[in-house]
Amino acid sequence: MSNGSDPTAVLAALDRAQDAFEMVGRGRTAFEDGISADEDWKTQLTKACRLLEVVDTLQSQDGYYTAVIEVCFGAIERSIEAYALAMTNDTLQDFQDHQFSYERAHQIGLFERETAEAMKDLYSENRTESYYGGGRPTQEQAEAMTDLASAVHQFAVSQIREGGVCLCD
To answer: Tens digit of pLDDT for each residue in 117-164?
Structure first.
């Protein structure tokens, strides 16, 4: 992999990260509290809950707009995925493309076509610009995305037949 010129610290950290994800030599693995391992939809739903908790934490620190926007898109996608996994025969492998979540939200009746397309457009036009582009995210954008992520999450949770999984209450 390395030609010998890369910094030793980077290579050591890369090896450690690869081992961590492969769970090699870790002994007893410490998983994140709150993330359900029962079923894929519960895992995605509880990931969304935890992401929204992070958004609240970042918002209380003021000024981390880029991170807030990025985490909000993640929470929206995890919430839509949780609904799809709980209510259809979809699998996690179906959701390898970020934009598929928004398309699927309409296909399975979670949102009307216009709403799902507007969310997909919001993602494709603004997430890329705020995260990778030269744009500087604003407080108003971060607050609006927080409101959207919370609303999508609460609606998805309310539409899933099995309750008692959401950590947000």
So the answer is: 999 999 988 887 776 777 888 999 999 999 999 999 999 999 999 888
* Residue among 49, 83, 72, 77 at smallest CA distance from 168: 49
Return d(Cα 99, Cα 77) in angstroms, integer. 9
- Both tokens assigned to 106: 């309409």
How far is it, in rounded angstroms, from Cα 114 to Cα 127? 19
- Report how far residue 145's alpha carbon sits from residue 153's, in angstroms, rounded to the nearest whole number: 12
What values do phi and psi take at 6, rounded to 5? -75, 150
What number of residues does the chain have?
A: 169
CA distance 116 to 109: 10
Question: What does the block give as tokens for 22?
Answer: 């492969």
DSSP string, 68-106: HHHHHHHHHHHHHHHHHHHHSS--GGGG-SHHHHHHHHH
